[in-house]
Design a protein that fits this description.
The protein is mainly alpha-helical and 137 residues long. It is built from seven helices and five strands. It has a single domain, classed as 3-Layer(aba) Sandwich (Rossmann fold), CATH 3.40.50. Helix 1 crosses helix 3, helix 3 runs antiparallel to helix 4 and helix 5 packs across helix 6.
Length: 137
């Protein structure tokens, strides 16, 4: 089994005209054809960040990339179900990192200072509930 770094996945999914990027895209495609690949959930998190922050991909396009990755039969994604749950919440408007952190939670509540996340989580009725940390408890 081959574990993949984010840069290999990024080069696989992003096609650019620069010669070195084209060369790396072909190499990444060759690696992606391997029979057994492993992707850590942190790599998926970083891939979302690269696509969004580095390349300006739209939410729906990023979600399509992650969904494609999750569906590849030769790829084992760490905590596949957790990443899949986070992807569902991401498609519904929750930040991917927040959704992934929440999906990993094994607690009665998820505490944050992010009021936007609290509102989005309440709208989706996420469990465990997401609560806003306030002064005085």
């Amino acid at each position: 089994m081959i574990a993949l770094d984010t840069n290999v996945l990024a080069r696989f999914y992003i096609e650019e005209d620069e010669p070195e990027a084209k060369r790396q895209h072909l190499l990444a495609a060759r690696v992606m054809a391997s029979p057994a690949l492993f992707v850590a959930r942190t790599v998926v998190l970083e891939l979302e960040w690269v696509l969004r922050g580095g390349y300006g991909y739209a939410r729906e396009d990023i979600a399509d990339v992650i969904e494609h990755l999750l569906g590849l039969p030769n790829v084992t994604v760490e905590n596949w179900e957790m990443v899949s749950d986070a992807l569902t919440d991401y498609r519904a408007g929750i930040d991917f990192a927040d959704a992934l952190h929440h999906a990993a939670g094994k607690a009665a509540t998820f505490a944050t200072f992010d009021a936007k996340f609290v509102r989005a989580a309440a709208k989706r009725k996420l469990q465990p509930p997401v609560t806003l940390v306030k002064a005085g408890g």
